[in-house]
Amino acid sequence: MPEADLIKAPIERPADTVIEEGKTVGVPFSDDPKFQLRNVEVFYGETRAIKNISLDIARNEVIAFIGPSGCGKSTFLRCLNRMNDSIENCRIKGSLLLDGQDIYDPKRDVVELRARVGMVFQKPNPFPKSIYDNVAYGPRIHGLANRKSDLDDIVENSLRKAGLWNEVKDRLDAMATGMSGGQQQRLCIARAIAVSPEVVLMDEPCSALDPIATARIEELIAELSESYTIVIVTHSMQQAARVSNRTAYFHLGHLVEVNDTSKVFTMPEHELTESYITGRFG
Amino acid sequence: MPTSDLLPLVLLLAAVAYGLAFIRSRAVAMPLGGIRNLKALPVYYAARAALWCAIPALIVLGAWATFEGKVIQDMVMASLPAELAPQSAGQASLTLSQISNLAAGKLDPAMVPEGISGAATLLQELREQSSRFKALLVILIAVLGGTFAWTRIAPHINARKSVERTLQRLFFVSAAVAILTTIGIVFSVIFETVRFFGKVPVTEFLFGTNWSPQTALRADQVGSEGAFGIIPLFTGTLMISAIALLIAVPVGLLSAVYLSEYASGPVRSVVKPLLEMLAGVPTVVYGFFAALTVAPFIRDLALMLGLEASSQSALAAGLVMGIMIIPFVSSLSDDVINAVPRSLRDGSLALGATQSETMKNVIFPAALPGIMGGILLAASRAIGETMIVVMAAGLAANLTANPLDSVTTVTVQIVTLLTGDQEFDSAKTLAAFALGMVLFMVTLLLNVIALKIVRKYREQYD
Asked: In chain B, which residues have their Cβ closer than 8 Å to the Cβ of A81?
């Protein structure tokens, strides 16, 4: 595209760029995969929301999903712990393996899957219960504590890991809904890690928070990345650059590029990725 | 011209005023360069003209129609010769009905005294005059009002403001009508209740255990002292309501859970209206279902089990009433369960909770205050229900805890006290108002509690 045209049309969308279906540039595969996802397609009724995506998510990596709104990154994320099950008309095709086992095997126990693959949502969603009961919710359901003192330990550890212990240790009986937005989101993270998952999925965890709370969560993600596999959907490219090892760029249901985060933000291989990260659209 | 013809005429005039004012306001605006040069849109000038035309005319019409009869009556009575002038209120009403029957041609003039037939002629004349004046006055006011508004169609006058103000008042009046009616009902009940407590002590009424409201009509009649203890009625009401709620709450709640959490879209869209139809069945239909099908069935069943059972039982009425109020519980619970944010549901499911665990641990506690509101509404409905009880539970005021016995309720007794030929100043009929008052207090209390709970619910997660 000549320089002069760019000036005339600064927000031109490269809609005419043809995306070859199922073709992802970069390094989508891994030697030590936690998730092996092959030819994944998601339909909402007749609409094909995810178009033939293949990707590996490596053990203990932090991978960021970026892309313009409606590109399918959240839909794809929700396939990983079958949260799409509760949506009517939603069908999933392809092979999705967690540690070599099919996630969508009809015989698969969803409860066990979700205990291993936890999730944090866009909007903080603490239950209208006490702080203690919020964190203890998962361990109680899965029978993780035999004694009250065990449960107390799990709650304390989870809150410590989420960096919330010092702020709430004196008011564990207070309603969780009375906390600030940032605290609520950290509580939701504590709640998710209280069941000792192997993977934590985060769907735009900071989009409802202010910059200070966001910085706090990002620190937390860095700490958690030592023991968990983390998949994070984000609209903020700076956030993706700060917290992730690898970045996957989604566009209109296609997975366009997957590369090391530093590579994506310095030398993107695909022209759509480049347009997006340079802010030409999205 | 009678009022029934004047009313449409005034409305017609208002419509004409509307049309003319609309045309004129456009005509005024055009030379100025379009309607944007008017302070308000043409419809506002038109609406103001219609309001000016209709409202004063209707007020005058209403006032005239209200006082017309009384004024004419007084004038006729005053015209009667001294020897025919009535001595008592009873005599006066007799004379009046004679006069008006004569005027209507239902009575032969030969059968009444001279003075009466003269009064009848006067009555006829006065009525005709009044009718004529009324029509003239109303039409005149309508036309004058319309004309006044017509002269006020000018670019610098803002019709929008006055129309808005008038409409605001109209809405206020509509709201006031409902409130004033309620207040009126309450006062009429209070008034009669006070009269009742003049005859029967409050303590006997509230704490007596014997209900037998038959009082002697004549001094020489045997027995029938009359006993007005409401305890048996209240235990009856409570028992039947409790049985009904025992049916309706579990069934209604579980069906609400099914509808909101498990049923697929198509199933839900069929089942929900079907369930709500239960509330639309007339209670008298439930009543004969209870009396002819359920009650005999219960009696036979009880006899088979070797239990003593009356053919009319509290159980039969309670069961059928329970079916009737299921939709109150299920429909409202369904709504509040759906109102629980999806994010809470997702949060619980994502932690590995099953659907029923999510229901029990998260959704149900969050929706509980709203569900309680629905249950209280159902309870008020059960307490106020009459027809099913009349037909299925009987009229005997038994003080019993056995649901197979026949019992009666407060509402049923109100009905039996006031139906048929009754003296309206005996303790028996006045007791109905006292019962109504107590019932009103109880349901009011329930409603206040329900409102409180609903308000608390609103603060939950917003």
From this structure: 350
